[in-house]
Amino acid sequence: MNFNPADEELFRAYQGKVDAHAMSYLEVHYRRYQATLSFLDAHRPARILELGAIGPYLFTLMLARRFPQAEIVLANWEHPSRKSNPLAPPGRLHLPAKAPGFPDYSFALHPFNAERDVWPFDAGSFDLILSMEMLEHMLLDPCFLFREAHRVLAREGRLAITTPNVASREGVGLMLGNHSPYRFGPYSPYGEYGRHNREYVPRELARLGEACGFATGQLATHDVYPVYGDMASVERLLGNDDLSLRGQTIFYEGVKDGRPFTAYPDGLFDYQPPEHAAILRVRRSDHAAGEIRLSVEATNTGRYEWRPDAGDATAGATWLGIQCLDRQGHAMRPEGRIPLPGALGPGDTAVLDFTLPDPDVAQGFCLKLDMFHEGAGWFYSGKADDSAEHCPSRMDRSVLLEFAPLQMPGSRARRRILIATTQVPFVRGGAELHAEGLSGRCGPTVATRRLPPSPSSGIRPNAFWTPC
Questions:
Q1: Domain residue limits, the chain
Q2: Which DSSP category does 88 fall into?
Q3: CA 141 – CA 262 distance, rounded (Å)
Q4: How many angstroms separate the CA atoms of 138 and 115, rounded?
Q5: Is 445 helix (H, G, I), strand (E, B) or coil?
Q6: Please, are residues 146 and 212 in contact by the beta-carbon 8 Å criterion?
Q7: Homologous superfamily of 278-465 in CATH?
Q8: Strands 399-407 and 413-421
Q9: Domain 5-261, CATH
Q10: pTM (predicted TM-score)
Q11: pLDDT-derived band at 386, boundaries 50, 70, 90
């Protein structure tokens, strides 16, 4: 297959000589790249998140050329190989031009699992999120991807997804020939995400989006690969069916327009998210002068509105609970609570800023953050749920901040903060630590006993509302 001359010049300006395997991949998917950019033609985003960005990064280069005014952030499961890019510091992908007349590119790069990990971005950070040929690889909970995309998109932001159409004309023809309609169904040597775990029909993407706060902006299909088989016979068989949704690849655009989350779509899930569920993300943390200052983002991913506590233990109120634990998981002081600044419906996000005194424990200590609903208890802490191990929407989403002594050469002992979120145990299991410039592993978040709220905790809240 021949590239458009301008695209070939662009590619070789950055990659030079390309190995045969990479060139074979590009030749297969190049038309899809072109169709995706055409699908985005009407957009003028200021910040773009490209999920699943992979080498040799031809689409990323095409995207940067198409939107020269935009800041582009990349995300993938892992950083690019240091062997192929030895000078790039952690967290950035450098693509220096090898030909005159082309700019040097440097993109922020974040490694995370998009259907499992809390994304490392503040709410409302992006105008456009791209997820190309990822959805079919999802193993656990595609709604989590949609809901995290909703959280980090600005109001009226767009989520654009491409994925194979299992109900394409080719798929119908394959089934008529007693073959599987999957575009890529073989078991893979590259682990649980190496194969297509589920392929979709177009209207299922609209249903996923509507369950996660998106209006359907565009829904189309296109043939972007060579077409094989007797498509004329298939079309006669389909009769008056809408052939515009029978192309090989689905192109979906969801618009964040303010609608709330709803139940997971029936037929796609045989479970529902908990009635009370949340995503908690520590945006900032400072530790100085005997105080710990935190900024925590709380997103309602459950099915009911969170109501603030009016100061009189309002029935049904919800708040952010803070548990101070020693290194063995025992409570060191009464639990504190941070009130919400206002009601939060499903899909809404608030940012809570607060300060609490440093316990000043030489052996270190932990702070556990979890939402609490009056009359229902903690969302996650110590809750026994037999389905939690196998249903990612029910996994423990509380946050553990570990303050451990860290000895710096030639200086006094200092503390470091490690932010841990418990992960699904059967996919590269264990709890992973997340912090800027820090990584490591620890055991699962410890379950703790419930303690009554107490004003003596010393926590000073200063919460404000984020309309996104």
A1: 5-261, 278-465
A2: P
A3: 15
A4: 7
A5: coil
A6: yes
A7: Immunoglobulins (2.60.40.10)
A8: antiparallel
A9: 3.40.50.150
A10: 0.82
A11: low
